[in-house]
Amino acid sequence: DGGITQSPKYLFRKEGQNVTLSCEQNLNHDAMYWYRQDPGQGLRLIYYSQIVNDFQKGDIAEGYSVSREKKESFPLTVTSAQKNPTAFYLCASTRGNGYTFGSGTRLTVV
Amino acid sequence: DQQVKQNSPSLSVQEGRISILNCDYTNSMFDYFLWYKKYPAEGPTFLISISSIKDKNEDGRFTVFLNKSAKHLSLHIVPSQPGDSAVYFCAASRRAGGTSYGKLTFGQGTILTVHP
Predict the structure, then answer these.
(1) What are the residues facing A14 on neighbouring strands?
(2) Mutate to test the interface with A, among B46, B104, B110, B111 (most CBs of A within 10 A)
(3) Beta-bridge partners for B7
(4) Contact B104, A33 (CB under 8 A)
């Protein structure tokens, strides 16, 4: 079955460390997105990519980085510059006929 | 700048009654609106959408209404069921080129609780 796979489901990071969240899709979707969910703030867009080797900053890109070397993959790196990284991270993709979301990664800074 | 707002953080409804979830937007360039349902620790799942050329779209128990002049949309669930208890997000986009979805802008979400 086609879908989006996010891994890991839970991730713990020490302060000062970079960490990379994986997002893989086998839907042949062109566009991929990273959102962050915080309580009471809904989903906020971090980065998005509409084609391979191209990506754009979203509303809260500071402290994050991405790459899009393959159509299927859109990993998100949470760097030590991100001051408040503890959140639920969601990856999504679309080919223009609806968004599909992954099941999310809960990142906790310890 | 919150371009999509859901001003009710929570809503409690009796089973069998109607649930009405509201959403307001400020960006007049938005032309496509969606509702998503989300359970804790899971990704959102698509419920229903509406284009700005319509004012109503219906799918089973779910109906979305769009009032462009008021920049307001609402989701009606009739009849409400306990399994509908979840967080509901409205989202808006501006289609790029008229054929594909642009990036989605989400509201803060409304927690719906349906009591048996």
Answers:
(1) none
(2) B104
(3) none
(4) yes
Burial readout A38-56 (b: 16 or more C-beta within 10 A, e: otherwise): eeeebbbbbbbbbeeeebe
Specify the DSSP class assigned to residue B100: B
pLDDT grade for A93, boundaries at 50, 70 and 90:
very high
Q: Do A42 and B46 touch (CB under 8 A)?
A: no
Chain A CB contacts of B1 below 8 Å = none
Residue A50 tokens, joined:
């509409």
Q: What are the pLDDT digits (tens) for A48-57?
A: 999 999 999 9
For chain B, how many helices (H) and strands (E)?
0, 11
- Whether A35 sits inside 8 A of B106 (CB atoms) is yes
Nearest CA to B43 out of A66, A49, A92, A107 is that of: A92
Angle at CA of residue B29, ends B28 and B34, nearest 5°: 90
